[in-house]
Amino acid sequence: MKMNISQLDKYWFYWIVQFSRDNGLNQAAKRVSATGDGHYYVYLSVALLFFHPNGQYFFNLVLGSFVVEFPLYLLLKNSIRRHRPCHALVGFESGFEPSDKFSLPSGHTAGAFVLASVVELVFPALAPIAFAWACFVGSSRIALGVHYPLDIIAGAGLGMGSVLLVEQLMF
């Protein structure tokens, strides 16, 4: 049976949600998702700014990258206007209420990949951990029923692309 991209997106969405529910991972998904909230990026960046020799570089990259990423995220999300699966799929209940109604791209994932990409540039030895965490943040958003897999891929691309652009322009 052939599937188009939209059908594949829904198939993998349902598979990840069911896997999470079958294995009791929803509470963990909520906690992981919360680590992708933006205020933690501010705390980390400011702490490194004051307490690490590479803190200024890290801070500048994070700040510059979010100056690029966030307006693009808002433009894309409000232009594409793809409804979240928890609102679009008949009979689906997520048990988690997102802050807005549109899903593409995933802002949590974009932010997590901004941070992971900056970690890769400033602290390369920590890159595998940072990217694993960013992938967990993205996966948690699917498990919670608020994003489709393609939203996560788009968010990851937006986050990494923003850092690449800023790094090329600033340094």
TrEMBL record:
<feature type="domain" description="Phosphatidic acid phosphatase type 2/haloperoxidase">
    <location>
        <begin position="58"/>
        <end position="167"/>
    </location>
</feature>
<feature type="transmembrane region" description="Helical">
    <location>
        <begin position="110"/>
        <end position="134"/>
    </location>
</feature>
<dbReference type="InterPro" id="IPR036938">
    <property type="entry name" value="PAP2/HPO_sf"/>
</dbReference>
<keyword id="KW-0472">Membrane</keyword>
<keyword id="KW-0378">Hydrolase</keyword>
<keyword id="KW-1003">Cell membrane</keyword>
<dbReference type="GO" id="GO:0005886">
    <property type="term" value="C:plasma membrane"/>
</dbReference>
<keyword id="KW-1133">Transmembrane helix</keyword>
<keyword id="KW-0812">Transmembrane</keyword>
<dbReference type="Pfam" id="PF01569">
    <property type="entry name" value="PAP2"/>
</dbReference>
<dbReference type="InterPro" id="IPR000326">
    <property type="entry name" value="PAP2/HPO"/>
</dbReference>
<protein>
    <recommendedName>
        <fullName>undecaprenyl-diphosphate phosphatase</fullName>
        <ecNumber>3.6.1.27</ecNumber>
    </recommendedName>
</protein>
<feature type="transmembrane region" description="Helical">
    <location>
        <begin position="146"/>
        <end position="166"/>
    </location>
</feature>
<feature type="transmembrane region" description="Helical">
    <location>
        <begin position="57"/>
        <end position="76"/>
    </location>
</feature>
<dbReference type="GO" id="GO:0050380">
    <property type="term" value="F:undecaprenyl-diphosphatase activity"/>
</dbReference>
